[in-house]
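Two entries, shown back to back:
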Amino acid sequence: MPIYEKLMGNPFVDAGVCAICEWLGGHPQPNEITVEDLQEVVQQVVPLYCESEYRTQIRFIFPNSTLTQHSKIQKGIQSLNEELKSEWFHQLCKVTDLGDTGDCMGCGRRSADFHLKKTEVPLTGSGSLRNFFPLFAEGVGYCAACALAIQLAPLGFVRSGGKFLALHSNSWKAISYWTRTCIEDVISRGSRNEFTGFFDPKESKAQNALFYMVRKMIEYEKARSDGNITMQVYSFSNDNRKAELDLYHLPARVFNFLRYAHRAQYAKNWYLIVRSGYRRQTKKGFQNIDSDKTNPTEIYQKSTNLVYNNLLEDKSIRGFFIDKLARKTRSNWELFSLYLQEVRTMEQTRVEKIKQVGNLISECIQESKDDKRLKQLERAKSYGECRNILRYVIRERIQQGAPEPLFSIDDYMEYLFPASDNLNLTPWRETRDLLLFRIYEQLHSWLQEHGYVEYEEENTSDADDAS
């Protein structure tokens, strides 16, 4: 039997096993790891952990460990190095192959060799406070192999905003791509004697750092579209003074959409959409960022991104696909419809029907040589107003001699304004925004030529409301 397998279930153990695989190079599988491999990793990683910046950061992961105790640090780096190696080789001596059952909290397939607390396992609890642990034991039981894996897990952590991000997923490849990004950076900097700590993408917001990593993972995937990857990201600090944990869930449908969004034909548009989502948080709430600042990159890295936040909170981002102030779209209909179908699970038939109606309204506006109906649609504040505007368009199309109706009663009931489970929330704003997107896409050049690109700024918010 092997020492490790893929996805044993504990997020810190799985992160550590993946870190071992990536550190060894050549991308070995977990079931190929040997005791000799573990010895090699320990010999190489312990001196790294003993570097000053790593020790400083490890205090927020493994407080009160050998690396953070001042009295031991005073004895010198070499002494610290040897002591930590001694501890880890003590664990190595107890490493055994996986069995069928066991009481280890990491794998459940070996007997627990150690009772560990927050010094060895993040967010576990203090050994002296027994109410944190099963049967009021002083710590939680882990086997030697899982305990060692957890000590190596920080190699695959991402620093952001004073916390660390750890990934857990239903996909071993996803964890591998995430960890590879981190370890390649650590090794690259180490080769230049730059021991500045664990991987830091310079994003102060955990949500922004998460999507930075998603982009790197997709680059490794080379735009593959198979598989449904679900991600759970733990943003935590294990500091003695204040342990914190935030959990972010990225569903498979969002990850699948992002695979498309980062393809060459969509990447520029997606960049514009993401950029429009950055907001600076002030006492008065979120404010748009002035892109003319001298160092916009640093400003973005410190700012909240509502596109990312909404994707994580299962809220719509359709408003960010439209630049209402300029009366234009930030992407084409193809990317927008991919978002609607992949993320919002909208039926393709409804998407196509709204596109068709948007085309007909565009023709009517252009034929009328006036943007009055577009202004009314932009400013509609109720379902009743929106419905009446469509009625006016129907009447004008009849006057223009249009050969076909704007839509049928079935189209109206099933696709434009379908029934909602919540009677207090009607989908009229969603339909209105989709129609505006298509009209802007069709008529932006015409609107510019006729001087109709004027829109009241107070009505240009990209954020979507609840209805």
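entry 2 starts here
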Amino acid sequence: MDLTSFLETLMAIPHLSWKNLVMMGVGALFVYLGIRHKWEPLLLVPIGFSAILANIPHSGLVEEGGFLWMVKKYLIDTEVIPLLIFLGIGAMTDFEPLIADPKTLLLGAAAQLGVYVALLSALILGFGLPEAASIGIIGGADGPTAIYTTTKLAPHLLGPVAVAAYSYMSLVPLIQPPIILALTTKKERSVVMEPLRKVSRREKIVFPIVVFAVSALLVPKAAPLIGMLMLGNLLRESGVTKRLADAAANEIINAATILLGLGIGSTMVGDYFLNVQTLEILALGVVAFAASTAGGVLLGKLMYLLSGGKINPMIGAAGVSAVPMSARVVQRLGQRENPENFLLMHAMGPNVAGVLGTAMAAGVFLSLLGS
């Protein structure tokens, strides 16, 4: 049977539209990319498979009362899953590079440029302000934060925003290098930075407490996200809650990731997903990621000049929240220019700072635009 005959046979199935077939193909592509190329497989595989399931007519999975409907309704829409994922991320994250070099927090802030570029671009395209804010968060390269914000401000855009955020996160190794190379010179990329200082256990314990207290006071709407992130980190660093930290970093986040993938995939039903608006959001996602990378690198170049050439400006690209992918991109580029260059730990400072920066930006949007 040739491809045309196969497609004609599929189209003969009652209520199966071409849009369903397209989204099944997209789901299959996600599964392929996750398995074959290992692009965010923990998310692309469940998202892709769920998208295939969601487009099977009359399966009952996405209709009210169906399994995928309940996952989205009670676990995604209520923000339970994004917050549990932030708990797990906190338990897996070592903030030592940021504590050792606090000025890299500025690079994480500069890399939020894409959030505001995408927001303004979305407004120009005709999106409402809450919708534009949700789309803008894609620029932070932080999937759970994008989902959390969109669920509160523009729940009807959850599908395309989540797909854009996680799709482009998996493409960070392809998106960032051309931008970094275009904005830096070989001399700048070859800079070898001094080793970071050793951080004490007391500093590691105090850090999550202070960060949560300050952020909650400044931007109360960011408290749920940063609170769960810092709780997870405190469980990791306290030294007395190893079992809880291990559970948060393994069983809890693994289960939450599966459910998150299923919930996102359930929104990718062809009749609702395939439209001009979705294409605009996907395009804005690219703009957001590119602008965020550029923002971090440009501030890195300024720091390079002010430090007398002691700071490698590439670490600014790691200011997006894609942990640790962006830091690995910087490490790989640095090694290519200078085999003695080990930038991973230096890049992890702005990388984890980007998580905080995106959460704060989301908190500001929720404070201004939320109910």
